[in-house]
Amino acid sequence: MKLSTKIVHCGVGSDPRTGAISTPIYQNATFRHPALGESTGYDYSRSQNPTREAVEKAITDLEGGAAGYVFASGMAAVTAVLLLYKPGSHFIVTEDCYGGTYRVLDQIFANLGFTVSFIDSSNLTEVQESIQKNTAAILIETPTNPLMKIADIKAIACMAAQRDIHTIVDNTFLSPYFQQPLLLGADLVIHSGTKYLSGHNDTVCGAVVARTAELGERIRFIQNSTGSILGPQDSWLLLRGIKTLALRMEKHSANALTIAKWLQTQPQVKQVYYPGLEDHPGKAIQDAQASGYGGMLSFDVACPSLVPQVLSRVRLIQFAESLGGVESLITFPAVQTHADVPPEVRDRLGVSDCLLRFSVGIEDVEDLIEDLQQALHNEG
Ligand SMILES: *Cc1c(COP(=O)(O)O)cnc(C)c1O
């Protein structure tokens, strides 16, 4: 079955008792036991809940994994994955990663004896040279946030597997519709389901999918033990969001490519970062490992004073953090999403005081361009 068909049928048929097409919301904490030593398969909603289970099955299937679990947020999903590893473990992590991932490693897991090499994961030599005796996992984002660099998932997973190191891919930016890291050899996929999976800026959630049943079981144990589950209402919203993932991703991606090309022609714009542009250094790898470019792009405006101008003048495009919803959002990473990354690191990465990140929505692209145009141009 084709992926876009699977996407539409997520959760359908999950309620054999009633035949409900839309999986019901089982707003329920506990379940009656049929008899001593017997279970319906559901005992207590931290451990299993039918609504959550339906969306977990759906995401697992879309990512091509053996088992998957949904969490209270993307950060809860990241945290559950990091709890797989012992104190003293070393990690290799994409340097321009999500700001919250940087923060949890730097300020929470550092206290548990984790060490991290933040590296440019688009540079294979740098990844290889960062491997230490105690390296437990390589955690990558591709495209990266916010500079849209591309890492070669297959090459990294191959290098890691030879040394018994896990490869973990945060697949939030592309979603399984465009990229399926487990099929390229990754061990674990993480999502902020808040973004493209749910897609409507109306719920915060996360997911982890494991390539093997064994690793999936360890994630399930951590989820049940630490309790960072997604509730039934939010599980339903996530499931409902996923059903239109294919349509949304196609539109996000088409809009983003048109806008990226348009921005390149604007005198107020110095540089555009989008993996679908012919001159993007990662385009060949992107074309080989993904079936689309996604809806995220960044651009440098010509001078810092244009940043407050654009952010205050946009009308249709909302100045807000987050990404991946149907509405277009623009943000200023240096101050908003990447404030916890030290200034010298931001400078090295290119997260400058001229960089704007744009989550391109599914509006009519002409309206979006018109809004950007009036926001960028000086009314003489
Ligand atoms: C938003 C985001 C996260 C964190 O997810 P929350 O749902 O906000 O906790 C992690 N990784 C990436 C790439 C993100 O964009």
UniProtKB/TrEMBL annotation:
Pfam families, sorted: Cys_Met_Meta_PP
CDD domains associated with the record: CGS_like (cd00614)
Tagged with keyword Cytoplasm: no
Keyword Hydrolase: no
GO biological process assignments: methionine biosynthetic process; transsulfuration
InterPro entries (UniProt xref): Cys/Met-Metab_PyrdxlP-dep_enz (IPR000277), Cys_met_metab_PP (IPR054542), PyrdxlP-dep_Trfase (IPR015424), PyrdxlP-dep_Trfase_major (IPR015421), PyrdxlP-dep_Trfase_small (IPR015422)
GO cellular component: cytoplasm
Keywords: Pyridoxal phosphate
PROSITE patterns: CYS_MET_METAB_PP
N6-(pyridoxal phosphate)lysine: residues carrying this PTM: K195
Range of residues in the leader sequence: none
Cofactor: pyridoxal 5'-phosphate
A molecular-function term among this protein's GO annotations: carbon-sulfur lyase activity
Family membership noted in the UniProt record: Belongs to the trans-sulfuration enzymes family.
Protein's name in the database: Cystathionine gamma-synthase
Organism: Propionispora vibrioides
